[in-house]
Amino acid sequence: MTPILQISDLSLSLPVKKGMVPILHDVSLSVAPGEILGLVGESGSGKSMTAFAVTRLLPGGGREKLGGSIRFCGEELTGKSEKDMQAIRGRDISMIFQEPMTCLNPVFTIGRQMTDVLMTHQKISRAEAMKKAADMLASVHIRNAEDVLRCYPYELSGGMRQRVMIGIALSCRPKLLIADEPTTALDVTVQAKILYLIREACRKLGTAVIFISHDLGVISQICDTVAVMYSGHIVEAGKAADVFETPEHPYTRALMAAVPKFTASAAAGDRLFAIPGIVPDPSTPMAGCRFAPRCPYATELCHTSPPTDIVTGEGHIVYCHNWKRSMNRKEAGE
Description:
Layout: E1 5-16, E2 19-31, E3 36-40, H1 47-55, E4 65-72, E5 75-76, H2 82-88, E6 93-96, H3 100-103, H4 110-122, H5 126-139, H6 145-149, H7 158-170, E7 176-180, H8 188-205, E8 208-213, H9 216-222, E9 225-230, E10 233-239, H10 240-245, H11 250-257, H12 300-304, E11 309-313, E12 316-319, H13 323-326, H14 329-332
Parallel strand pairs: 3-8, 3-9, 6-7, 7-8
Antiparallel strand pairs: 1-2, 1-4, 4-5, 9-10, 10-12, 11-12
């Protein structure tokens, strides 16, 4: 199936006082219609920056350096003007931001914010837009939609604001939906509803979805394919079942080991595993693998030479010199 979005060798550098700092390094991803791609990694891994690069909502003030290719429905996005991107955002590519309270305008009602999007992209009257907005709120399981349209964001709960954001994102039936940690800080009941809504949109509309999260449990529930990011690199990618059943990169294995285990075999008093160290500062140059300082399998080669992508199975890629060694569970102490 032809991908809706094809990212190839994407690189990104952002301006700082002392020059340019590299944020993304040779990122390659693709997502097809009706597919949900999970993008996972620690904070600072580059997940949100990848999304902002696709939507061209970067913090560089126009001075950022973007390399590689971002092809959406066969069109190259990296060379498009801001005016061109404004026509694409909200209509063909929509984004659910991490914190709806900071993304919804506090001085406008929900109805005003939803109808503005619809009227901009569909050229319909405000009365028609209000009808569509009410229908969209009902479709994301918000009761009394007409009353909610008259509300301001502060009058709604976190879960309702998040559903409003989903309603806005889906109102123009986008071809690509980017969900940036849409379940953060939500209780498990609301989280389950949000995941259901995203799967429903994917199934009914054929929307391609990039789902960004640091929660492996959520990713395993909803995603068809998974890409693991670390320090601006894709370190492992493949079908979700393959990545979760046979993780091959030491970082992926460490992330999975850090997930709390609520099983009968989990003994009281067991210590929760944590990955030592922190994600490196992107402004710090490193000759080899950027995970090497935290990796228990790192060799001299890892510290001096960057690894290359290795295809280990059908569509399964790992970016590591010593991935075979990390697969030895006894050596890993698992």
